[in-house]
Amino acid sequence: MAAEVLLLLGADQGDVRATFARAEAAIDARCGTVLARSRDHWTEPWGFAGPALFLNRALLVATALSPSRLMEALLAIEQGLGRVRGGTGYASRTLDIDILLWQDRRIDLPGVQVPHPRLHQRAFALAPAADLCPLAVPPGRDGTLLQLLDRAAAPAGD
């Protein structure tokens, strides 16, 4: 039985829109069916000072893969589209694909944590996610994606 999974694509290097198109086609071919996509969101780098804005886009995907198999497939897609992992911390990249939500499940496996552990802190992820599923409540959180976005985007002290 297929599960609906919310993914986030992010990148700041190369022809990002073309990379996203190739990534989406690969996800559709290898992981399941892409049901919907958010609008594109351009944002400042998060966790480091980078030279370019990031493009972020959420995808709603129906998949029959297990969480571990989906993550393996997503990592292979990243690598196939030029992602080089290395070093420590956050850095510019050609493609990053995160699993944000897996329906209402909480998953804690080696290499796979869902909901994404920092989703509630990241407006750059919440905004595209809320485009697709504004009323979804991530397991373990006390608000919808839209409410979490409002909190993450609020200036300190509000």
Write a structural description.
The protein is an alpha+beta fold and about 160 residues long. The chain has one domain: 7,8-Dihydro-6-hydroxymethylpterin-pyrophosphokinase HPPK (Alpha-Beta Plaits, 2-Layer Sandwich). About 30% of the residues lie in helices and about 25% in strands. Strands 1, 2, 3, 4 and 5 form a 5-stranded antiparallel β-sheet that branches. It has a two-stranded antiparallel sheet with strand order 6-7. A hairpin with a 2-residue loop joins strand 6 and strand 7. Helix 1 runs antiparallel to helix 2 and helix 3 runs antiparallel to helix 4. The radius of gyration is 15 Å and the shape is globular. It starts with a strand and ends in a 5-residue tail after the last helix.
State the gist of this model.
This protein is of the alpha+beta class and 158 residues long. Helix content is 30%, strand content 25%.
